[in-house]
Design a protein that fits this description.
The chain is an alpha+beta fold and 323 residues long. It has 2 domains: 134 residues, no CATH class; 150 residues, Alpha-Beta Plaits, CATH 3.30.70.2200. A hairpin with a 2-residue loop joins strand 4 and strand 5.
Length: 323
Amino acid sequence: MADQEMNRGIAGTTGSRPAGFAAGSPDAIPGDPYVIRYPGIVAVADEQGTVIELVEFFDCIGGAMWSRHHYPRSPVVRSARNVGSSMRYVLSPGRTDLDLQGSKFPAGICGAEVDDREIAISYIGIGGGGVGASGCRSFAGGVLRCQNDPCGGGRQAGSTIWLPRRQRVLIGVDDTDTPEEGATWTLAHNIARTVEDEDCRYLSHTIVQLYPVAYRTKNCVSIVCEFATSEPHRLITRFRNLLEKYTLSDDTGMAAFTGFDPSLLLPFGWMVKKGEVRRDLLPGSGQGQLDLVLEGRGIIGAVAAIPFYTRFEEALSLWTGPD
């Protein structure tokens, strides 16, 4: 497998393309017509480096769903799920030889490695699966460097990509609007987009339905925005500064969780979805680190939103009492 950081071509296609693919033609496909470049690939790891979540932002949903169908057959892959325009794979570090077979098991993730600064992911496939494993992922946004094989036709091909090792940061927000103006869900999203840069990738936005307390604006929801970042403190500070600048409420709450898995906060989250909760029941730091950043009345909803990130059905459910 050769290091091909600058070579984006796909072997076997140059010199045999139809005239319509000629450079300069008004009907030409930009770039290589046999490669679909992933817009971005991001990886986060837990503190111990024992589990990785690989987040692949895709341009072609068919290819992404095909990968989701086949990749979980690898022993490296614990689970796979679709979240909006991304596919997420939870991985165990290690390497394995995959017994690839056409149609039955044509591609997979064959390796995942973590060190202090980087995460390396190895893919392999045959036929079109090799194109996805090599050409399509090697030059995705967010890739630091890659090693890849020539791909195309029926051959076997693979690649290893190196990504920055990032941490998950979940920022919960509640109570930024008034009965006359504003909306927390839009403000949180726009702030999240604004703070996104090379060191911080905005991954998801989840609206969380809370118990309709008497002092709500109208719908009683809070928001959790998910990020992958190498600089958690900088991200949280920038988000806070913009939230303080644009909020319309004196009761705004903002909480930030830095860590791989916020599930220890789920019991509190469900309490706030099922009824009015006193402030003194707010949890302390769990697995990872929970920071109460802005401690207005909305802090209860802000913390409650965090464990529901990307759990959209549960997040949006409205408690109507026990069955």
